[in-house]
Amino acid sequence: MSDSKIAKTATLGDRTTCGSFCVIGENVKIGNNCEVGNRVIIHDDAIIGDDVRIDDGAIIGKLPMKAANSAVTKEQELPACSIGSNCIIGTNVVIYRGCTIGQKVLVADLSTIRENVSVGDFTIVGRGVAIENFCTIGRYVKLETNVYITAYSTIEDRVFVAPCVATSNDNLIGRTPERFDKFRGIIARKGARIGVNATILPGVTIEEDALVAAGALVTRDVPAGKIVAGVPAKVFRDVPDDQLLKNQGWKDK
User: Fold this and answer.
1) Residue 188 and residue 208 in contact, taking contact as beta carbons nearer than 8 Å
2) pTM
């Protein structure tokens, strides 16, 4: 670790290792049995649990940037970034200060998780996923490759989001001052599923165990236990009984 820069106030647990050219900031706490790759940057105050793997080039606890005309990024004091035990953080992942990640979470290569976000235990954040600020992601969620979760969204437990799903929070598309009071992300209730390349418009709620078909454009709320498809999406039929969450036999661990 002689070629890394580790602040004197940082604490590294037993059997924790760092690769080459890492930067670990003031008051960082890293637990036992962690593996930190090469050129990892861990900013001040970050808290990392035991048995965490952080791959090459990851950045933990980054401060947000605020553009002069940003509509949703605010000047604020943010709590330390926190990553629970037994997580895997992939190559070139960026996790912002003010983000809390639970235990046994996988954040795959090239993903970004913004400030004021929480990610629940056992969740998978796939390759290239972007989770914007002020979002809540539940437990056992799967966000597949290149999913975009817009700011102010809530994704509840056991939700599945297929690759390239896009979400939006601004019905006025960047015009007129009234938009500043009307930003609304999406809500995906427990067990909801969203198919590949679907688009979900601002303020839409996808109710429990509902299914959005691939390529759908969802402009209004989706009823519980229903399948919607098309452009714009309309109710197609019921979700088959054997696909309902209650019939999967899953138990939270």
Assistant:
1) no
2) 0.94
